[in-house]
């Protein structure tokens, strides 16, 4: 099916034959109607975009106005190595050209602007919004706007530093079916928004909660307090990060051992993405995307 039709075309059926055999023609039809927005393109997001474009998503809109840097070149395989073709193009524009080559049947677009500058109506144009490379406040605001849209918009955030990463998912009111023996059961999950999820007191979290979760919150808070961009920390900031960790653990009544100094040192020392880990996390994000509410409803 194309974006406007109800049936898969012969060309699409032939191209996506193997995955149709896995998840069926109806799922492929829904996938080809999905409109996805991505903000911030690093290695993990590049992997995600590649996966959904190859799978035959309806359309993909990219936003990333940053110029090319050596760090971005090392982690984003969508950026061509030939500097002669850059010509002042942004990351989104270069990635757009590469993704179109991966699958010419998928419509790939570029928008310009800061994440906070887009209104509710803009976010309402999409079925899925994926956000990266921005502050907690920017993620919170984007999530709020997705929830205010006239239709349900699935919201994801992803962050990867060194060999560590995390994904947040908000599918709002998620209804799905599962089979138990010969019976089909209707299920309903109500997801918390981004702010509510991160506002849960640390002491109330499961005792097996990953220590990475707490470490990421410390780094995130440090960047926010210092007015830094996401990932803008270095070895020189370690002493202040450790001081903030102590303050947060005290305020949250959490033993400091839950946020190891060695883990914080690692995250501060190297904020770049480790490509193999980016591929894994991007792949996981893609799998979550395929199984999200718009795809299984």
Oligomer: single chain
What is the helix tally? 13
General form: globular
Order of helices and strands: HHEHEHHEHEHEEEEHHHHHH
Architecture of the largest domain, according to CATH? Answer: 3-Layer(aba) Sandwich
Beta-sheet strand percentage?
15-25%
The largest beta-sheet arranges its strands as: 3-2-1-4-5-6
Number of domains: 2
Topology, number of strands: 8
Largest sheet: 6 strands, mixed
- As a percent range, the share of helical residues equals 40-55%
Q: Radius of gyration, Cα only, in angstroms? A: 20 Å
State mean pLDDT (0 to 100 scale).
89
Task: Describe the protein.
The chain has helices at 10-15, 17-31, 43-55, 70-75, 91-102, 120-123, 136-148, 194-198, 211-226, 238-251, 261-269, 275-290, 293-296; strands at residues 35-39, 59-63, 107-110, 128-131, 154-161, 164-170, 173-180, 183-190. 45% of the residues lie in helices and 16% in strands. The protein contains 13 helices and eight strands. The protein has two domains: 34-196 and 274-295, NAD(P)-binding Rossmann-like Domain (Rossmann fold), CATH 3.40.50.720; 200-269, no CATH class. It has a six-stranded mixed β-sheet with strand order 3-2-1-4-5-6, sandwiched between helices. The protein has a two-stranded antiparallel ribbon with strand order 7-8. With 297 residues, it is of the alpha/beta class. Its main location: nucleus. This is Ubiquitin-like 1-activating enzyme E1A. It holds the Pfam family ThiF.
The gist of it:
The protein has 297 residues and is α/β, with parallel strands linked by helices.
């Amino acid at each position: 099916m194309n974006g406007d039709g109800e049936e898969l075309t012969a060309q699409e059926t032939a191209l996506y034959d193997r995955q149709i055999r896995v998840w069926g023609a109806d799922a492929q039809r829904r996938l080809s109607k999905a409109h996805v927005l991505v903000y911030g393109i690093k290695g993990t997001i590049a992997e995600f975009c590649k996966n959904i474009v190859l799978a035959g998503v309806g359309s993909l809109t990219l936003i990333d106005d940053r110029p090319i840097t050596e760090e971005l070149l090392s982690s984003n395989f969508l950026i061509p190595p030939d500097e002669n073709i850059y010509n002042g193009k942004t990351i989104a524009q270069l990635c757009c050209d590469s993704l179109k080559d991966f699958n010419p049947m998928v419509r790939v677009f570029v928008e310009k602007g800061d994440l906070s500058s887009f209104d509710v109506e803009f976010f309402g144009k999409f079925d899925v919004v994926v956000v990266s490379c921005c502050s907690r406040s920017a993620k919170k605001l984007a999530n709020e706007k997705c929830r205010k849209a006239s239709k349900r918009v699935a919201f994801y955030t992803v962050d990867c530093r060194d060999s560590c990463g995390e994904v947040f998912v908000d599918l709002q009111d998620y209804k799905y079916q599962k089979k138990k023996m010969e019976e089909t059961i209707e299920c309903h999950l109500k997801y918390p928004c981004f702010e509510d999820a991160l506002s849960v007191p640390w002491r109330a979290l499961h005792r097996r909660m990953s220590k990475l979760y707490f470490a990421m919150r410390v780094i995130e808070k440090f960047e926010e307090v210092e007015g830094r961009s996401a990932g803008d920390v270095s070895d020189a900031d370690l002493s202040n990060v450790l001081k903030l960790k102590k303050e947060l653990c005290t305020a949250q009544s959490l033993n400091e051992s839950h946020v190891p100094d060695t883990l914080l040192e690692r995250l501060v020392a190297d904020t770049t993405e480790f490509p193999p880990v980016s591929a894994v996390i991007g792949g996981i994000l893609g799998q979550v995307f395929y199984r999200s509410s718009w795809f299984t409803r």
